[in-house]
Amino acid sequence: xxxxxxxxxxxxxxxxxxxxxxxxxxxxxxxxxxxxxxxxxxxxxxxxxxxxxxxxxxxxxxxxxxxxxxxxxxxxxxxxxxxxxxxxxxxxxxxxxxxxxxxxxxxxxxxxxxxxxxxxxxxxxxxxxxxxxxxxxxxxxxxxxxxxxxxxxxxxxxxxxxxxxxxxxxxxxxxxxxxxxxxxxxxxxxxxxxxxxxxxxxxxxxxxxxxxxxxxxxxxxxxxxxxxxxxxxxxxxxxxxxxxxxxxxxxxxxxxxxxxxxxxxxxxxxxxxxxxxxxxxxxxxxxxxxxxxxxxxxxxxxxxxxxxxxxxxxxxxxxxxxxxxxxxxxxxxxxxxxxxxxxxxxxxxxxxxxxxxxxxxxxxxxxxxxxxxxxxxxxxxxxxxxxxxxxxxxxxxxxxxxxxxxxxxxxxxxxxxxxxxxxxxxxxxxxxxxxxxxxxxxxxxxxxxxxxxxxxxxxxxxx
Amino acid sequence: xxxxxxxxxxxxxxxxxxxxxxxxxxxxxxxxxxxxxxxxxxxxxxxxxxxxxxxxxxxxxxxxxxxxxxxxxxxxxxxxxxxxxxxxxxxxxxxxxxxxxxxxxxxxxxxxxxxxxxxxxxxxxxxxxxxxxxxxxxxxxxxxxxxxxxxxxxxxxxxxxxxxxxxxxxxxxxxxxxxxxxxxxxxxxxxxxxxxxxxxxxxxxxxxxxxxxxxxxxxxxxxxxxxxxxxxxxxxxxxxxxxxxxxxxxxxxxxxxxxxxxxxxxxxxxxxxxxxxxxxxxxxxxxxxxxxxxxxxxxxxxxxxxxxxxxxx
Lengths: 463, 313
Prior knowledge:
The complex is a heterodimer. Chain A is of the alpha/beta class.
């Protein structure tokens, strides 16, 4: 979707639209084949290319909001501050790895023709299916927010690239709540005590890891055992595992140099016992090894959620360093581990109230200053960083690293209609547990990604 | 079960007093219809209608056009189809063999070797796990299988399994699921088999003893042949529940943080087809596959065991 999106340029628009319609027609044709359709041409035109038709608007009508438990207090705060807006709040398991609850429900609502919630919190993966019809003739669940609902000025205020998961077919279908930019976390007192330099390149990270494996056995510089570890390492090192070259064409090439050298590096560190194949979030890890994590390459939310809450690391211990580069590279790039979005339903009878809520949740300082994770809206992020509650726990200032990493997320890793966690967890992790090397399972990983993509109607290339 | 048993008892033992039935036949019939009415309504609403609808879905596409066997070919060609059926079949073979052998063995021992009082207590104990809801049983097993929290972690460690991830290695899954299924399902069947063994007249066993049959011969040549139909019935029911495998692998998938494939069993695959890919027709085709498999297996077992020929005896 990103390749279709280039800002400005009115002349190119017609060409782009034509290209989009063409690719959608192809997609519909393919979907036709996929649904074992004997005569796909007579079924009507592809529905996605049509203009967004608003449902009948009823001013002041009640809106239903689905939020995960973390975001629930924000929604309740809005309701308290805006008693005129009639709201029904539902808590659900949104945004969890590979959770398909929202998708399942919307499939059913699309069949019964009613029941859609007005505003929902979801994962970026959700937008990829929500911006397209779930069946021929259905209206995509998410409303295009740039279509007279949210001013362009507001959309421009989000961190660079943070709205790209929301963009499809030249429209913006969600507002990004938070970013999960990947940074290097480290235990400052221990690093100082042992006299180690904080690495700035992958090569230094590898060398330090091997050294720690020898000099301080049991201490760790990272983990590859979680459902999202691949996003920390392979996304950050620009490995083209999930690259949409067009809305319906996926490139997944794990024999790319960026993937193989990352796998090799991690294999070396696994051999040195400095990187574990157990997950940070696996049962018992916090108890057994939580205090042995010297460094961790992971998202900004590791600070509060992993070190403070799960590992119970004392305050002023964990510090943050910028994302790593390969030697010789001038700029670092980083991955993005999660980060939720707010969507407004295209079926809503009260788009005004729904949009106002979604906008307030994502952009207002009032809400975001105290939010649990790093806001995607740049101004709100500044306010968030000024809040001592978000930074006083760490050893040193996190602002600069967080801000620069937020703008360095590599956009070559796309969100697809299927979650990127499944292939990694089910095809790679069990083999690592068996003792196989990451390098040796890259082909299995690529095969699983390609199979999943094909099953979801993508054309796949592995080159 | 009791429904099947009744004709044998009533035809086999003539009334001693020879009195006529006390109620007129017509009223008894009406009461009979009344009794089955509720069941019939539920059967139609949640059994027959959904089955018919899934047949309709399996032979059509999203626009309702007839597509013949295209949906079946499509799902059979899916890369997850064969592995899912393979997983299920390995599990089914394990589960059926272990179930039949152990349940019959335990029931025979309970009936013949254990004092009646103790036997009643044991039967009650065996039955308890089955009374736990499916999800709760799996949760119990999640604790049992995680070396970090398991009360039998020494056993897991002794087997070289030092982490939950190692326990859940793909090759171990059929065995784990069999354990869960046996733990939840077998107790109920032991009680049923015990009841079936009780039905064997004492005279028969006594005759066998007088003819010189030892305990082993009695079990093998008298008791097991006489409860054969119950064993077949159990096998059919267990086969049907086995093909429905969904909750257990689904929960293991969540608990293992995705290490277990979300399409491990055919039912899970159907779920993904319907609710992730929005392909209800493909999902229906998978469920029709499963239904056919269950019907063929049940048909074979019924034909081979004369399960329905009770009245001819």
